[in-house]
Amino acid sequence: MRKIVHVDMDAFYASVEQRDNPALKGKAVVVAWKGPRSVVCAASYEARRFGVHSAMAVSRALRLCPHAEYVGPDFNKYREASRQVREVFARHTDLIEPLSLDEAYLDVTENKGGLASATEVAQTIRAQILADTGLTASAGVAPNKFLAKIASDWNKPDGLFVLRPRDVLDFLTPLPVRKVPGVGAVMQGKLEQMGILTVGDLSNRSLAELEQRFGRYGRRLYELARGIDDRPVEPDQLAQQVSAETTFEDDRLLSDLGEVIDKLAERVWEQALRKRGRGFTVTLKLKTDRFRSLTRSVTSPVLPASAQALADMARQMRARVELPASTRYRLVGVGMSNFPDADGLSRPRQADLFADLPVEGPPAEEEQP
The whole model's pTM is what? Predict the structure, then answer.
C-alpha cells in the first residue's frame, strides 16, 4: 500500500506578498491586475472571509472587499518560492509530481530520511517549508492521490490531516458528491437527478448502472466512491500542453492582435522549453465582445523552430476566423500541444488547450498587455 502526501501551499501568491511586505500581514490581500476585465489570481484568507476567491472578476472582488490591498502579481517571485518548496520535497523523496506552482503529490512509501511514518514526513516537510520560505503549507496523508488531495484541504490553512486506510469509507460516505474529481456543476446536476447527493449515495450504485450512464467515467466514479485510486505519483512528466492568454481592458479588432499574439507565443515558447518539449499543434483562442469563444488549430509535420515560428503560425490562423472584420475581441490566447513521445513521434491525442486552470491563478498566468 502506498503512502501519499499531497502538499498545498496556503493562499500561495497572496502569502508570498504578505511575507515580502510586512505592511500587508493580517490584511485582506488580493493579487490581481486592477482593471474592469481582470480576474483575481489569489486572495489571502482575510479577503476570502468576504467571499473573494481566485478566478473571480476583480470588479466583483472590489464590490465584496473594497478595503483590500490589491497587488499586481509577480510570477518570477512565485516561481522562486515554488522552487524552494520543491527543494524541500526532494530531501524526502524523488517521487514528486507537481500539479502547479503551489501543490504537488509525493510518494513517501519509502522516504530518504528514514522517518517512521508518512505523518512524520508530512510534519517535517511543513516545518522545513516554513523555515526555508516563511510560508505555510497544508498537507494530506492518505493511501492514494485522490484521498490525499481531499485530505490536504481538510484542515486549511496551515494544517495536516491524516486519512488512514481503515477510516476511508467512513470519511467518504457523508461527503458531497462534488468532492469527487471531475464532478463539476454539470456532472453534479446529472448525479443529483439520479438522487446521488453524497459519495455514499454514489457508492450504492452498481458499476453497470454508472458505466451505462457515463461510459468510461462511470467506472472512475464507481472506484473513487470506494476510495480506489491506483494512479502512481509520476515525476518528470512530459509536457502535454502549454498555453497563455490575456484579456483586454478594451475590445480589439482581429487585425490589431498581431503584437499581442507575438508576446503570448514567446511566453508559450518559454514554458515549452522549461518543460523540455515543443508541440506539433498550435492553437489560437479568441473570445468576442459578446463572449463567443472560438479556437483555430493547425498541426505541422515538423516542430516549430522558434518563438517567432510559433507566433507566425498563430497569426496565420486569423485568416481562418470567419466572423466579420468589424468583430471585436476581449480575449486572445496561444497554445501548443501534441508533444512528441520519447521516440520523436506525435502523440496520438491532442490535449484540450486552455481547459485546465492553475489552482492559484488565471489561465497560464494571464498578463495585461
Answer: 0.70
